[in-house]
Amino acid sequence: MHAVPDGQPNLYGIIREALSRAGKGLRPALCLATCGAYGGNIENALNSAAALEMLHNAFLIHDDVEDLSETRHGSPAVHVEHGLPLAVNTGDAMQALSMRLLRENVRTLGPETAWKIFDEFDHLLLRSLEGQAMELGWIRNNEMLLDTGDYIRMVLLKTGWYSFIHPCRIGAIVAGRGDRDLTPFNEFGLLLGLAFQIHDDVLNLIGTGAYGKELSGDLYEGKRTLMLLHLLENSDAFEKQRMTGILSKARQYRLPSEISWLYGLMRERGSIDFAQSASREFLAAARQFFDSAYRDCPENEHKTFLRQLMDYIVDRDR
Amino acid sequence: MHAVPDGQPNLYGIIREALSRAGKGLRPALCLATCGAYGGNIENALNSAAALEMLHNAFLIHDDVEDLSETRHGSPAVHVEHGLPLAVNTGDAMQALSMRLLRENVRTLGPETAWKIFDEFDHLLLRSLEGQAMELGWIRNNEMLLDTGDYIRMVLLKTGWYSFIHPCRIGAIVAGRGDRDLTPFNEFGLLLGLAFQIHDDVLNLIGTGAYGKELSGDLYEGKRTLMLLHLLENSDAFEKQRMTGILSKARQYRLPSEISWLYGLMRERGSIDFAQSASREFLAAARQFFDSAYRDCPENEHKTFLRQLMDYIVDRDR
To answer: What mean pLDDT do residues A85-105 have?
Structure first.
């Protein structure tokens, strides 16, 4: 893995360990397949795909610190294994290494395309961190006056741009499409991202052992998921008051019995069914936008792979 | 401040607040003055200088999280004011915004020089994070077998590159010196950085109210300062054992009486005097290297300012 330097075990050793854990590789897959679908040379997209995966893992390490999550990909989170100070520092370095990978694009793609991809990264970085600030602010202020529109806006910022929209756009840019209108990827990526994120939130509640995070972790963290917002809209004044009380406490003071009550109420009011069907509907819409976003691509193995990847997104159990 | 976007108060609001606190502006000053000393147009160095200051503030926010420091520039640290999750997220965004400022260099300096400065940033970023990992590892493992050579190596990595060496190098590059040998700045910056860091560590012990951090914070944090290493070399077996015991405890379990004992012993063994005279010696050496690093600069107001800045570094009380 030449993207990670040798030396300093408390930095590069931790990065190697974090990268060796089984992730889905979703973002590089979207980037490389989109490049291939447009007839581009996939090798030319490798630096950008690696930068996306590096940055994603930086986000995961910092997310786990910020949410105090204890497991990731079935192993202890980096801050649990190495302590919070080294976890924060390691995430910083991975963000820096992702920029170093983009620097390589000058050599392989020339300066103009390299800067274009740099700008895509600039956008996805800040949008993701804005989305994270939005979600952390909701939890911090125990925000209860939220609706599904707020949820969609948050997912677009926090996950949509960096995990779906920009990986596709960058793949197309590497394939020489940088001068065309790239906005069709924005709608496609947002819808696919919503399908993915809602499915992910559902897995956090009802997942099997294959799901590598602690179950109901989102409830303990007070995450404003689509299920929670649905439940808020479908509960009476007494229930709302109890929910507000539970969510206003610091994570470590939330009792298992309170989490069970929340979970049971979600089941009873159909919040989980609602989220599952929302995820399926967003996927169906994403499929339609896929056909228009990729309409000038020939039918090839990459386009077939992208279709399979869409199925995987709501069928996976981890 | 157009370097900070509008919107998202839980992100950009916090960044504005952090940047508005009185910092010394040392890194931008070194960068701009070096550019001016070499006859460059200072305006051309503004983006790079702002990027240095932005990144420095990102480091401060994450450092305070990692060290659990409570005050910064006389105010509560960002993680004390806004909580740890938003503090981590804000630092990430400031690292991203510093890269965005470098992107501006393409427009003002052309792509070749812009990439050269990008490479300087790539180097200073990773070196700083390696130095931080080294220091955090020492604290984490309660490392006691360290000597002054380890300290110098750590300061070079953690502070030397980003605060001294690269600000000067970048100033020279903006002034059109990018093709010359820039290594004389490395020696000069390392020596000035050592003078600065040791003086900073001394201020942490014996500073006045003007110093914006909690006094003796480094002792509570178990920082391996030059004074601590000097004391280790000048204590008997019983004292060494007691020091190891105190330093092995988590920060919150270190008692004020233990910190007083450490401080008193440092006074008694001359560790603070030793550090103060080391700082002065490094400064004297830096002055000699200044003359050679800047020897082909004419005597102008910028060169005069740089000389004053060297004096300030060991005379300041904050």
So the answer is: 97
Span B65-98, pLDDT tens digits: 999 888 888 899 999 999 999 999 999 999 999 9
- A60, A115, A126: best to mutate for the B interface, most B CBs within 10 A: A126
- CA A260, A264, A266: angle at the middle one, nearest 5? 120
A228 domain-assigned:
yes
Residue B262 lies in a domain: yes
The answer, for A85 touching chain B at a CB cutoff of 8 Å, is yes
Interface residue of B126, B135, B143 to substitute, partner A, most A CBs within 10 Å: B126
B110 near A CB under 8 A: no
CA distances from A249 to A141, A217, A246, B67, B80 (A): 11, 15, 6, 26, 18
Bridge pairing between strands B71-72 and B75-76? antiparallel
The whole-chain average pLDDT of chain A stands at 93
Q: Which residue of B has its CA nearest to A5?
A: B126
SS3 A207: coil
Q: Domain for residue A134, yes or no?
A: yes
Measured between alpha carbons, how far is A86 from A275 in angstroms, rounded to an integer?
A: 36
Give the least confident one: A114-128, A197-211, B66-80. A197-211
Number of H helices, E strands in chain B: 15, 2
Is residue A264 within 8 angstroms of chain B, CB to CB?
A: no
The count of CB pairs under 8 A between chains A and B is 134
A83, A54 in Cβ contact below 8 A? no
- Which residues in chain B are contacts of A93 at CB distance < 8 A? 125-126, 129-130, 133
pTM: 0.94
**B129 CA: distance to closest CA in chain A (Å):** 6
Q: What element of type H or E holds B215?
A: none
- Cβ contact, residue pair B115, A111, below 8 Å: yes
Q: How many domains does chain A fold into? A: 1
State the residue range of the domain holding A114.
Answer: 11-294
Of B95, B100, B140, the CB nearest to A92: B95
B318-to-B48, B76, B177 alpha-carbon distances in Å? 25, 16, 33
B60 in A contact zone (CB under 8 Å) = no
- Interface contact flag, A115 B111, Cβ < 8 Å: yes
Determine, yes or no, domain membership for B1.
no
**Predicted confidence (pLDDT) per residue in A239-256, tens digit:** 999 999 999 888 888 889
pLDDT > 90 in chain A, percent: 79
| pLDDT over threshold 90, residue B220 | no
Contact criterion met (CB < 8 Å) for A62 and B140: no
The confidence score (pLDDT) of residue A211 equals 56
Window from A105-109, A214-218, B175-179, B240-244 with minimum mean pLDDT: A214-218
Of residues A68 and B154, more confidently modeled:
B154
Q: Which amino acid is at B81?
A: E
Q: What residues pair up with B71 in beta bridges, in sequence order?
A: B76
Least confident of A286-290, B3-7, B217-221: B217-221
What was the pLDDT predicted at A318? 66
* CATH number of the domain encompassing residue A227: 1.10.600.10
Interface check B273 vs A, CB under 8 A: no
